[in-house]
Design a protein that fits this description.
The protein has 47 helices and 7 strands. The protein is globular. It starts with 5 loop residues before the first helix and ends with a helix. It comes from Streptomyces tendae.
């Protein structure tokens, strides 16, 4: 019975109504165990069926959390017959993920896109995922990704999450939420009356309601297990045990009152997560339990037997399993292992067998190790880590146990699980050979760095690199580069700073006769930080050219090393002011990350690309890139959003994102996040004309090796200092920028340096530098800096009393800023233009102005001849959503066909 949930029912029914109208909806229903989530979802199922929706369910099961894509398979199984209609790459990814055939680890984005396409074609559709806190990691990531990309699919996705969750449910954060509270007193009394048929004294009734604290399951279940005497004299003494815990205790007492065979049957059912009744009865027969044992269990209201076994509530399963003796749990798992088909489901068989072992068992451990390999091949790092951890526990020989613990630690770290350090302690107990010891040292260093984003990380990476030098020279060189990158990112200029790490990296083993791009990058950076920028530029250019040439090598298309280092290569291209190379490497990094389904690296790749798009004045494409990155939810994507908001001149948005970044940086000890935030604030304040505030922020940003390495901070500091009347504060930045520009010899660098010299100069020299800056910046893609040069030149001309020349420059600046959407800089140009006596012209309206950033991106792609399916794959949207956007685009542009779209000149 659903009592007291009228507002919640209305919210869910509204989602269904929107889907009937051609929209989609997503909702996360949160609340403690027994608060009524499942009852609310059941009401929604019934409402959806009555409205003509297809309804498909999945549920997380605690024991299934180690099986990659298990929850996703539950939801998608009814649709798999239509998988043949998907593009071949999506078919292949889905098939490998679900174990239908072998292949390379599936591209998780392709899996998500395949699921999105399958759901889109099945609408109107309601997808209900109960107990989502127990989904396996792979399923949770994909389903959350899909939920963030549903658009016009007539699909409603509802996830029920227990608070507090049993596992990390970060994947679902940021989705719309409905949090269930306890029932009010009146509704609680109504529900209690359905559970207790005998008349209740008002005092007793009020005590029961108070003790249940509005939890519907408590109101239904706790009276059922209470002795009759309590109804006469009171319910229970108040205690501090949580309501869900008390409910679970009640289920446990009820289970313990059953006959022995019925209790054992419950333990087997609790240990078997799939609910397969045939498998359960085979396991029961293995234990000599007759089918009649189910009768008292069903009569007690603990579970139901049909084609599937269903527990009354997930708390029944956990209560039964936790209450069972270790011996009974092992007997249950042993029986399940004995009757599980090794050919059909080898991994569950291996898992059950492992849980049945007392002590150690090499055969069981080896079987788990094979399961870990299969899980990794399907892209289930979390599952592989769990299998390897248990395999290490079962391994009798210390040396083999240490090796397996080390492999488990690597898998845990890759999966983002915190237990990696515990496993490293097991591995360190050894014995390990020299190579394994070095790998252990390296993993320790990486965990230390990623955990604190600073501190001892660079030093520990250096120590690992030294240890690896005689054992694995190639890995040693990569680890030296890791340490150098870590030092740049942390921005620590102390003993563990960039210069110290670069000095130490000079001891790296010699590169091979045919150095890899990563080898050239290491050598170029070491030279740069030890001998100076000018000395390092030639080596850095060779490295960047090697990365760029590597793309044309057929063997490099799926090169994981390239994916790993393109993040640093792209930032290095910025350090030599090579805008064309930044665009090329960033595009390649994004493409390789997409092809490999690299959830951890795609957002970083999109960040570099979006920053370069912002600097190029293409704000709409940058916005779409940050939106895609946000949909992955794998790493913070605030950096790209912050820089875009700052250049757009949106003060409130920038300030809000900046505050969030600073809070997160303090929590992680990440100085670079704060430095990057300060750079964005400097851009914002320079745009708004608040130069003292810009100077404070830019000075802070200039303290960062990361910001000076990528050359983002110099020009902001110089402009802010000069406009604040403090040109002496710009001296160091100007000297460094000028020497770097001369060494790089690129239009971008030379243009910035010339503009910066103009700001500190007077008379004819200043004008000559302004003109040089404009001429140089016209020859590169960094449109924002060209516009800013026209602006500061116009401001200078006005202050020289040359109004006519000032108007020309300020008009150009205002037009450029208005076209790209740099609102604060456009307003600054407009103020200056009005000061010359000219009213700034409003920007000429363009047909594309009516399009949203996402619509503009889709229009651009379609105008190149791409199909809806191809555009959807590019933007991680379903073809149906692309078609819906196209209808809106056609309407806004007053056209009727793709051919007409190709004829338009889109910005």
């Amino acid at each position: 019975m659903l009592v007291g949930r009228r507002a919640e029912q209305a919210a869910l029914e509204q989602l269904l109504a929107r889907a009937q109208g051609g929209d989609s909806g997503v909702l996360v229903v949160r609340g403690e165990a027994g608060i009524g989530k499942s009852a609310l979802l059941q009401h929604m199922r019934e409402t959806a069926v009555a409205a003509g929706f297809a309804v498909h369910d999945a549920a997380g099961v605690e024991a299934e959390a180690e099986f990659a894509f298990a929850g996703l398979h539950q939801l998608c199984a009814p649709f798999l017959a239509r998988a043949a209609e998907l593009p071949e790459p999506q078919q292949a990814a889905l098939g490998v993920a679900f174990g239908l055939h072998e292949g390379a680890a599936p591209d998780r984005f392709l899996v998500g896109l395949a699921v999105l396409s399958l759901l889109a074609e099945a609408g109107p559709l309601l997808c209900v995922v109960d107990d989502a806190q127990w989904l396996d990691q792979a399923s949770a990531q994909v389903l959350a990704f899909v939920a963030r990309r549903v658009g016009a699919e007539r699909v409603v996705m509802v996830f029920a999450l227990r608070d507090p969750g049993a596992t990390d449910v970060e994947a679902f954060s940021g989705l719309p939420e409905l949090r269930l509270a306890g029932l009010g007193a009146s509704d609680a009394q109504t529900l209690l009356a359905t559970a207790v048929r005998a008349p209740l004294d008002d005092v007793v009734r009020d005590r029961i309601v108070a003790e249940a604290r509005g939890n519907p399951l408590a109101l239904l279940e706790l009276p059922r297990g209470a002795p009759a005497v309590q109804f006469a004299g009171g319910f229970e003494l108040p205690d501090v045990v949580s309501v869900p815990r008390r409910i679970e205790d009640g289920f446990r007492r009820r289970a313990n009152s059953l006959p022995a065979d019925a209790r054992m049957l419950l333990v087997v059912a609790a240990a078997e997560p799939t609910g397969d009744a045939a498998l359960l009865w085979r396991a029961a027969a293995e234990l000599g339990i007759a089918r009649e044992a189910a009768v008292p269990a069903e009569a007690a209201g603990l579970l139901e037997f049909d084609f599937r076994v269903r527990f009354r509530h997930p708390l029944v399963r956990s209560a039964v399993y936790r209450a069972a003796t270790p011996t009974d749990r092992r007997r249950a798992h042993g029986a399940l292992a004995a009757v599980t088909d090794q050919q059909v489901d080898p991994d569950r068989r291996a898992w059950h067998r492992a849980q049945a072992v007392v002590g150690t068992d090499e055969d069981a451990a080896a079987e788990l190790e094979r399961s870990a390999g299969r899980a990794r091949a399907r892209g289930g790092l979390a599952a592989a880590a769990a299998f390897l951890k248990r395999a290490a526990e079962l391994t009798p020989r210390p040396a083999v146990r240490a090796e397996r613990a080390l492999e488990a630690a690597h898998a845990k770290h890759e999966a983002g699980a915190p237990e990696a350090l515990e496993l490293l302690t097991v591995a360190a107990a050894g014995p390990l050979d020299a190579v394994a010891q070095a790998r252990l040292q390296l993993l320790n260093a990486r965990i230390a760095f990623h955990g604190a984003r600073g501190g001892e990380g660079p030093r520990m990476l250096l120590d690992a690199a030294k240890t690896l030098a005689p054992l694995d020279p190639a890995l040693s060189r990569e680890t030296y580069l890791d340490a150098l990158d870590a030092a740049i990112v942390t921005g620590d200029r102390g003993p563990g700073g960039v210069r110290a790490v670069a000095d130490a990296a000079r001891a790296a083993p010699a590169p091979p006769e045919s150095p890899r791009p990563v080898d050239l990058l290491l050598d170029g950076l070491v030279t740069t930080f030890t001998q100076g920028y000018a000395a390092g530029v030639p080596g850095l250019r060779r490295a960047l050219d090697a990365f760029n040439r590597h793309e044309r090598d057929d063997h490099a298309v799926n090169d994981g090393d390239d994916r790993r280092w393109l993040w640093l290569a792209g930032r290095t291209a910025m350090s030599v002011f090579d805008d064309q190379m930044v665009h090329a490497l960033a595009a390649r990094h994004v493409r390789l990350a997409r092809e490999a389904g690299a959830l951890a690296t795609l957002p970083a790749a999109l960040l570099v690309q979006s920053v370069m798009l912002v600097l190029s004045g293409d704000f709409s494409r940058a916005a779409e890139q940050t939106a895609i990155a946000a949909a992955t939810r794998t790493v913070p994507v605030l950096h790209g959003q912050l820089i875009l908001a700052a250049w757009r001149g949106r003060s409130d948005e920038t300030t809000e994102i900046h505050a969030t970044m600073v809070r997160e940086a303090i929590g992680r000890g990440g100085r670079t996040e704060d430095f990057l935030a300060q750079y964005a604030m400097a851009v914002l304040h320079n745009g708004l004309g608040d130069y003292p505030a810009a100077l404070v922020a830019a000075t802070r940003a200039f303290e960062s090796d990361e910001l000076t390495h990528s050359n983002l901070a110099h020009s902001e500091l110089i402009e802010a200092a000069c406009r604040s009347g403090r040109p002496e504060r710009a001296t160091a930045a100007l000297d460094q920028l000028s020497s770097r520009a001369l060494a790089s010899g690129t239009p971008w660098g030379l243009g910035l340096a010339a503009r910066s010299r103009a700001l500190v100069s007077t008379g004819p020299a200043a004008e000559e530098y302004y003109r040089e800056a404009i001429e140089q910046l016209r020859n590169c893609r960094v449109a924002t800096q060209l516009a800013r040069t026209h602006l500061v030149y116009g401001e200078w001309l006005r202050r020289q009393g040359r109004r006519q020349g000032a108007r020309q420059q300020l008009r150009t600046a205002h037009q450029l800023f208005s076209d790209m959407g740099a609102e604060a800089f456009a307003a600054r140009a407009a103020r200056e233009l009005r000061a010359t006596g000219e009213h700034p012209r409003s920007r000429s309206a363009q047909p594309s102005d009516a399009l949203t950033p996402q619509e503009l991106t889709i229009a651009r792609l379609v105008s190149t001849g791409a199909t809806s399916r191809e555009v959807g794959a590019q933007l991680f949207l379903s073809p149906r959503t692309i078609e819906a956007h196209l209808r809106s685009i056609f309407r806004k542009l007053s056209i009727t066909s793709r051919r007409q779209l190709r004829d338009l000149r889109l910005p």
